[in-house]
Amino acid sequence: MEEPSVLDYVKEKLTFWKKNQIILPSPEPEPGDEVLRDKTHSSPGFLALITIPVPFLLAIIAQLFSETDERSKGLVIFFYAAAGIGLVLLIIFRNWKVDSLLPDQGEADQFKVRWIPFLAGSFFSLLAFAFFGGNTFNLLNLSLWVVGSALIWHSLWVPAGWWGKLRSAWRRFLEGGLLITPWMILVAAVFLLAGFFRFFRLNQVPPEMFSDHAEKLIDVSNVLRGQYLIFFPRNTGREAFQMYLTVAVAKLFGTGISFLSLKLGTCLVSFFSLPFFYLLGKELKNKEVGLLAMFFAGIAYWPNVISRVALRFALYPAFLAPTLYFLIRGLKRKRWNDFLLAGLFLGIGLHGYSPFRVVPLVVVVLLLVYILHTKSRENRRLAVIALLLVGLISLVIFLPLGRYALSNYQAFAYRMQTRMSDAERPLQGNPWAIFFSNLGKALVMFQWDNGQIWVHSIPGRPALGVISAAFFSLGVILVLIRYIKKRHWTDLTLLLLVPLLLLPSVLSLAFPSENPSLNRTGGAMIPVFLITAIAVENLTVNLRSQLSDKWGKWFSWAAILILAVASMKENARLVFVDYYQQFRNNAWNTSEIGAVIREFADTIGDENHAWVVPYPYWVDTRLVGIQAVGQVKDYALWPQEIASTVEVGTPKLYIYKPDDEEAAQVLRDLYPDGVVDIYVSEVEGRDFMLYYVLNDRMEN
């Protein structure tokens, strides 16, 4: 055989995605070589142990330059480029092992439909569709919908004996035969740790409501009064899920019409979606990846702030996670029931937050990726049936909102149209140029800038912390290289999911300043934290491979512990210090005004004898009422209306902004003996004036 040249060897190394074609013959050993090998066999491992972490250290340095007040884009790019090149070189020269994902399993059973319950369910669903025409849930249309959905579900569900397995597991648990392993304890501990980050100081972080919360709580109070809407047209239109969720929370926890009720609802949904991060990671790779994905999603600043801000934002990733899990598991394990469950969560998600409307497109793209990567005719048939099942079940669950959209499309799509088109204002340039500019900004939001919207982010900082941003960045390279080498559909799926799930933000063509935003990109956190977890797990695997089993295990666990502690410390500061403080400095202090009115009512006055004089760009007077009396009550009294309260009995309290000279003059003219005071807020620039009228003799 002709001996390969050095050039041939270099070409073989650079084309790492191809199988090895050059075999270098081993030289004949010379006397003494065996002794020399014995003395030096550990050197390559020790050298690799030193070089393996280098790309990740460079990536962390790059991200640190993105965190400083005087950050340098040039240094960020330089160190990230060095990190990426270093990682690629380690892979090329076989000093880095890229593990494969779990292979697909099994063959699908023959799919069968029980036609009698299917046709009956379709009939009831069509009736429900007709009776949903009034944009109101009632006993009749709900009953028809539930019966129709249940019959269609029964007609497609494959009996799997799960009830017997669950009963058997419960019996073993009661008898003490169900073994609780250290791994189960670790998973539970990480889940509880995530709960700490979701619920710690929930009543204080964030500290104040803003006008969107008033709109939500007005809708919630209307539901409590018996207005069971399917779509809430207030404030450019809102899907129904959060309203009914908040009603349930308010009743269950006794928190009433309050900011806390809104917070508890969104944080609970976000919290209980975290196990699907674990299950997704476990399905794609192993339980370690699953645990790391759940950990990073649990403690990260991004998911915590969009959950705590108590709007619908958290519903996007919360229902997307199970949708993706059951869809991917169904394709990998060939289980028909998984597609039904994916359709169920897809349908529920469409009732949650409008950016979720991109998910049907995501499902189609994911199935196309699967079809293009499989050579089996049966697998392609499986994917087509999966699309039909997911689409059918999601359509049945979406039925009430679909009926509303069909009759009131302009109201249903108004918010979306105002962002994507010139419905509200003309586009400020070529649509394609704006689109690609938005896409570029969104793709680097993880490492550079998550947008300028202070209510649900810290403006100008990266969406990820230092550790997660660094590992996500190199994780993209790892997954891309693994896809080039292995051509597995799940790798390409992970990579494509990121830009696809950014689209609700990227498509803000009319308002490009709103892109990127942590709320409309929320679904992207699922592939982002999975890729981050894959990178961390891959690093530990490569570190462990250079040491003995015992030392490799302890060394890799120590590395994970250091990364975890650093991430927790940073993200805790971001949420409980930085985000809290900047939110407090930007929001108006309706809680302090509400507390003053409450104190007035509890001491010398009455809650109905207090008013707030509105002023441009000041407090939302509806929020004052919610803070003061725990119900929707607008305390607004315009300057020209003050005179109408002269005949109202005393004591009376008027609250106005220090800048409002008109209100101050009207009050002085009407009540020259009134007592004026200033409330000094805990936040600079948030003081407000108090004007007391204590007896009738003060009135003109």
How would you portray this structure in words?
The protein is mainly alpha-helical. It has three domains: 6-92, no CATH class; 158-585, no CATH class; 590-698. It contains 28 helices and six strands. It has helices at 6-14, 33-40, 43-51, 54-67, 73-92, 115-131, 139-156, 162-174, 182-199, 211-224, 241-253, 259-272, 274-284, 287-299, 301-308, 315-333, 336-349, 359-373, 377-407, 409-420, 431-443, 466-486, 489-506, 525-544, 549-586, 590-602, 621-629, 661-670, and strands at 231-232, 238-239, 610-612, 652-656, 675-679, 688-693. A four-stranded mixed sheet has the order 3-4-6-5, sandwiched between helices. Strand 5 and strand 6 form a beta hairpin. Helix 23 packs antiparallel against helix 24 and helix 24 runs antiparallel to helix 25. The radius of gyration is 30 Å and the shape is globular. It starts with 5 loop residues before the first helix and ends in a 7-residue tail after the last strand. Mean pLDDT is 89; it is low at 29-44.
Write the layout of secondary structure elements.
Layout: H1 6-14, H2 33-40, H3 43-51, H4 54-67, H5 73-92, H6 115-131, H7 139-156, H8 162-174, H9 182-199, H10 211-224, E1 231-232, E2 238-239, H11 241-253, H12 259-272, H13 274-284, H14 287-299, H15 301-308, H16 315-333, H17 336-349, H18 359-373, H19 377-407, H20 409-420, H21 431-443, H22 466-486, H23 489-506, H24 525-544, H25 549-586, H26 590-602, E3 610-612, H27 621-629, E4 652-656, H28 661-670, E5 675-679, E6 688-693
Parallel strand pairs: 3-4
Antiparallel strand pairs: 1-2, 4-6, 5-6
Helix pairs in contact: 4-5, 4-22, 5-22, 6-7, 6-19, 7-19, 9-12, 9-14, 10-11, 11-12, 12-15, 13-14, 13-16, 14-24, 16-17, 17-19, 18-19, 18-23, 19-20, 21-23, 22-23, 22-24, 23-24, 24-25, 26-27
